[in-house]
Amino acid sequence: MGTLQKLLFSSSFFSLLFLLSVVHGGHHHRHSHHFNFRPNKLFVFGDSYADTGNTPKSLASSWKIPYGITFPGKPAGRFSDGRVLTDYLARFIGVKSPIPYRLRNFAVNNLKYGMNFAYGGTGVFDTLFPGPNMTTQIDFFRQLINDKVYNTTDLLSSVALVTLSGNDYSTYIARTGSTQALQGFITKVVNKYTVDLKRIKGLGVKKIAVCGLQPLGCLPSSTFASSFQRCNGADNKGVSFHNLLLKQKVAKLNKQTKDSSFLILDLYSAFMTILKNKGKHPGDSKFENPLKPCCIGVSTEYSCGNVDENGAKKYTVCDNPEAAFFWDRVHPTQQGWRSVYRALQATLKKL
């Protein structure tokens, strides 16, 4: 198995490895003056980078200790020690983080903030994890619109967050056992991603924040081979190809809609900036070794949250999660996401 194959196979299992084993606190601050409209709802589609509790407890380590130890103080379905990207974008807009789709019938009073349809381990196509792909997530959303849960006015004052973090690629490699035709598959993934984005817009959402692919070669699942000392540049080249195609597609979509509805959140640049300067920023924790995860298995076969038959931990947790950028093999800590959010703020103001 080649380096890129190993990386994509392990890193983008995202929740699969964790699933089968797997905003900085405070008050919300309204930033809607940055927008040309006043958004009051957030709809979320994607995977574990945005999931806040949809993935079933029976499959996800995000519901196991030590996930959630920073926020809300116990496991709550987020693939981190605390808040994730969804929570920070909600804060930027000035609303509470939207409820997970699975709670739609139990938290009716919170429907006013939007809804989160993201499931860990999923992609634009079916992946190794049996969660709803992006097409199905959008179907859920469409059904709510058809059922009059959300009306045209709601949609015209809404923002969508869409994440795609690599699960399609890990699934492709796992099924084909090869990376030879990966470039062609990347094109297929981005084309399907574009169709999904256009569909979300077609349902009436006003603005759509589209996540580019993060540097897979810098995830702990890849940097483990160098004792978390350096990123794998060769692996990141494939990521750059994905992001280049996505940029071209989004530019075309904006021309078609004529209102610049789509905005790319460049996670690659945000991650790389933080990893290079170790998160150094006034008031921020400094990530001494940003490539090393806080929660790590005691051997390569064990993941964060795993225990043996007697309940003994098969992982260790760092003393201070705020000093770590990565929480586990593929997901940032709350502090890591906070740093990414700060790096993206200039872009978010363009929504």
Question: Can you describe this structure?
Answer:
The protein is an alpha/beta fold and 351 residues long. It has a single domain, classed as Rossmann fold. Helix content is 36%, strand content 9%. The chain is built from 11 helices and 8 strands. The strands form 2 sheets. A 6-stranded parallel beta sheet has the order 2-3-1-4-5-6, sandwiched between helices. A two-stranded antiparallel sheet has the order 7-8. The protein starts with a helix and ends with a helix. The model is unreliable at 1-35 (pLDDT under 50).
Counted by DSSP, the helix tally is: 11
CATH topology: Rossmann fold
Proportion of beta-strand residues: 5-15%
Number of strands: 8
Give the CATH level 1 class.
Answer: Alpha Beta
Give the averaged pLDDT, no decimals: 88
How does the SSE layout of this entry go?
Layout: H1 3-11, H2 15-20, E1 41-45, H3 85-93, E2 99-100, E3 114-116, H4 134-146, H5 152-156, E4 158-162, H6 167-176, H7 182-202, E5 207-211, H8 220-223, H9 233-257, E6 262-265, H10 267-277, E7 295-297, E8 315-317, H11 334-348
Parallel strand pairs: 1-3, 1-4, 2-3, 4-5, 5-6
Antiparallel strand pairs: 7-8
Helix pairs in contact: 1-6, 3-11, 6-7, 7-9, 10-11
Quick synopsis:
The protein has 351 residues and is α/β, with parallel strands linked by helices. It has helices at 3-11, 15-20, 85-93, 134-146, 152-156, 167-176, 182-202, 220-223, 233-257, 267-277, 334-348; strands at residues 41-45, 99-100, 114-116, 158-162, 207-211, 262-265, 295-297, 315-317.
